[in-house]
Q: What sequence folds into this?
């Protein structure tokens, strides 16, 4: 009995894989060709209408295009009218369903800056600071005591390290360190 059920299951799986359309993800290409421009290429003769939908972060359709073509086609979409955010471009046909999806971000991406920072208290008034970053661009290190800048230095490279001797601060606990790049993106960290 188990053999019969297993055989029927294997037969159903093999039939469903053969029933799938000859269209696959190699037939449809979605390419980002500029910051806010996308091109959809259909590299086969479509058997029916092709629907291109652009959805926002909430899966609401913000644009729909129905394409009737009896030959290969490529169509460009200008996304400049869309608000900044994440969008999904979906290409499908009624017979085959979804053929291709692509996630697209519209807008200016914020630069990702990664810093590794370490502060070590070496004594009552000595503090060691180490900063490592993923790039060699110019960076600025500032030290604040109760909101007042008591040290500021710029450096280039991926590493910065220095031992500071603080004699005129009320407490090392109140110190706040900042490292930032030229665009002002940075990270705050404290001595403790």
A:
């Amino acid at each position: 009995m188990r053999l019969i059920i297993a055989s029927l299951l294997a037969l159903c799986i093999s039939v469903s894989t053969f029933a799938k359309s000859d269209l696959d993800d190699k037939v449809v290409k979605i390419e980002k060709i500029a910051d806010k421009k996308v091109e959809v290429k259909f590299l086969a003769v479509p058997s029916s209408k092709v629907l291109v939908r652009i959805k926002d972060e909430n899966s609401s359709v913000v644009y729909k295009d129905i394409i009737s073509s009896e030959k290969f086609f490529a169509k460009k979409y200008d996304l400049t009218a869309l608000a900044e955010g994440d969008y999904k471009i979906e290409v499908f046909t009624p017979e085959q369903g979804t053929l291709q999806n692509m996630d697209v971000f519209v807008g200016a991406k914020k630069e990702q800056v990664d810093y590794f920072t370490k502060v070590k208290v070496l004594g009552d008034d000595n503090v060691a600071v180490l900063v490592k970053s993923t790039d060699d661009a110019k960076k600025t290190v500032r030290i604040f005591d109760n909101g007042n800048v008591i040290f500021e230095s710029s450096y280039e490279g991926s590493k910065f390290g220095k031992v500071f001797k603080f004699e005129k601060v009320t407490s090392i606990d109140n110190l706040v360190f900042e490292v930032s790049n030229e665009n002002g993106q940075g990270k705050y960290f404290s001595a403790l």
The chain has a mean pLDDT of 80.
